[in-house]
Amino acid sequence: MTYAQRAFIVLWKDVVTERRSKATLNALLFFSLMLLFLFQFTLGGDRERLVSALPGLLWLGFVLSGLVGLGRTFLLERENDCWDGLLLTPGDKSAIYLGKVAGNLLLMLVVEVILLALFALFFNVDVARALPALSLVLPLGTVGFAAVGTLFAVMTAHVRAREVLFPVLLLPVEVPVLLASVKATEAALAGEPLSAVAPWLQLLVAADVVYLVAGVLTFDALLEG
Amino acid sequence: MTADHWGFVLAAYGLAAVVLAGYWRYLCRRDRELRELAKTIAARPARRGA
Amino acid sequence: MSRILGWLAALGLAAGMIMAFGVAPREVTQGNVQRIMYLHVPTVLVAYLAFAVVFVASIAYLWRRDPAADRLAHASAEVGVLFTGLTIAAGAIWGKPTWGTWWTWDARLTSVAILFVMYLGYLLLRGMIEDGERAARYSAVVGIVAALDIPLVHFSVYWWRTLHQPPSMLKPGPASMPEGILAALLVNVAAFALLYAYFVAKRVIVLRREEEVLA
User: Fold this and answer.
1) Of A111-125, A188-202, C15-29, which gets the smallest average pLDDT?
2) What residue of B is the nearest CA neighbor of C79?
3) CB count, 10 Å around CB of A132?
4) How wide is the angle at C-alpha C189 spanned by C-alphas C185 and C194, nearest 5°?
5) Is A165 in contact with C135 (CB distance < 8 Å)?
6) How many helical (H) and strand (E) elements, i.e. helices and strands, does chain C have?
7) Which residue in A218, A220, A222, A223 has the most chain C C-beta atoms within 10 A of its own C-beta, making it the best mutation to test that interface?
């Protein structure tokens, strides 16, 4: 079995599991909806302020729901005594990592698209013209989160105060991705061409590459025992 | 001439001195404690049998 | 060995203080409050050194599984966080009279604050894992990822602050470096580097003793 096949099997298993139970997806969607309501209540009826804060609010929503989703990456394996199964996988275990990252990426993107649509609906914002640009920015930013989040999720799975430690570890590391994503989203929503924010996009790509490579190289060490 | 704000200079260096000295004392104390502990363990009668 | 380092550090710090307050001239635009720089800049530079050591030691640990590498990473991270905290505090104390505010989201302070939280997380992770071997492996990964993130943090925060603002966001420090100021700065950097080395040496010894005694 090739490396790619092994990674794909992990991805497929998670997708199928999720499609059957929809547990995580439902929880994340509900959570995102609540965030949307919170933003409306806390930022008041001032539409101008809301719209100008929209890129930041969007990513705030993505990050917060992402934290919930990413933290659960290895929950099934842990709860159902499948952890040893992971350990005993033959060959390069980083294939598991990439499969998990792909799964998380997919999950987060689904939530993000739905959240974007909800934002457009509830806050009466026209995002249609920004869609081509956003379809580049959202995945680039989300890969950045998924790559490190999946890696850290392995570690925090074994720690007592995992709900607290996971965001504490992940969020500072993700500041560059967050800044770049918000700036690029800002440009997209304002109708500017993406070339105007080329440095930010380059940073996103660089970050994604660095994180994925680091993850592939270190995942094995995390899985031992 | 701009004000010198010596109070702030003192505050910054004073804080640094207190923190660094505190850490140093923590290291020395911990080192001492562990050396004592090592001595008492070594001084215990050797166990018989394997 | 660590004793020699200790004495060298003490000497260095004494020399540094003399340079900072006796030799370095009074700065023209800011006045004597600028002398905080001889504390603020060395602590941040040595903090970067500390985290670079954490990076290398973490890689060495994952590669060789040598407990000495793990102890070095742990000690260096701890001292690094200490120095980073001092950098932020000194920066804030410097900022109040010069900028009129304790905190400002300028590029340097923000980057350093992010660094502080990252490596504080490293120490938290270590504190929360009982198994020594697992703690070593996990924190090595965090040490590596955090260090790789440092340039990314720098660029992103710097661009965030300057891309839509005039680049005249003032950083505390003279525009050009008169000789006395540069010399004082260098002496203090060396002094704090020696202090770092001394602290790390002692901390590593304490860690080793802990392993031997509490095992």
Assistant:
1) C15-29
2) B23
3) 10
4) 150
5) no
6) 6, 0
7) A218
Which of C114, C128, C134 minimises the CB distance to A225?
A: C134
Task: In whole angstroms, give the CA distance from residue A205 to residue A143.
Answer: 9
- Here the tokens at position C186 are 């260098």
Give the residue among A143, A108, A130 at the shortest CA–CA distance from A51: A130
User: Could you report the per-residue pLDDT of A78-111, keeping only the tens digit for each?
Assistant: 777 777 777 777 777 888 899 999 999 999 999 9
Which residues in chain C touch residue A151, judged by CB atoms under 8 angstroms apart? Answer: 141, 145
Average pLDDT over residues C190-208: 96
Q: Which residue of C has its CA nearest to B11?
A: C93
| pLDDT mean over A169-198 | 93
How many Å lie between the alpha carbon of C178 and the closest alpha carbon of chain A? 35
The b-or-e profile of C90-125 (16+ CB within 10 A means b, else e) is bbbbbbebbeeeeebebbbbbbbbbbbbbbbbbbbb
Q: Kindly tell me if the per-residue pLDDT of C170 is higher than 50.
A: no
From the list A123, A116, A166, A167, the residue with the least C-alpha distance to A138 is A116
Angstrom distance (rounded) from CA A176 to CA C145: 13
- Tokens 């939280």 correspond to C117
Pick the closest to residue C200 from C73, C87, C84, C85 (CA basis). Answer: C73
Would residue A126 be called left, alpha or beta, if left means φ above 0 and alpha means ψ between -120 and 50 degrees?
beta
Q: Is C85 on the interface with B (CB under 8 A)?
A: yes
Predicted TM-score (pTM) of the model is: 0.90
- For B43, residues 6+ apart whose C-beta sits below 8 A from its C-beta are none
C/A touch flag: 3 or more CB pairs below 8 Å: yes
Q: Tell me which long-range contacts B6-10 makes (C-beta under 8 A, separation of at least 24).
A: B6/C32, B6/C33, B8/C33, B8/C36, B8/C93, B8/C94, B8/C96, B8/C97, B9/C32, B9/C33, B9/C35, B9/C36
CB A92 within 8 A of CB A83: no
Least confident of A84-98, A110-124, A204-218: A84-98
What integer pLDDT is reported at residue C163 of this predicted model? 63
What total of structural domains would you count in chain A?
1
Q: Cα C86–C91–C97 angle (5° rounding)?
A: 135
ipTM: 0.90
Which of B10, B27, B39 is the best mutation test for C, with the most CBs of C within 10 A?
Answer: B27
Query: Which domain, by its residues, includes A87?
Result: 3-223
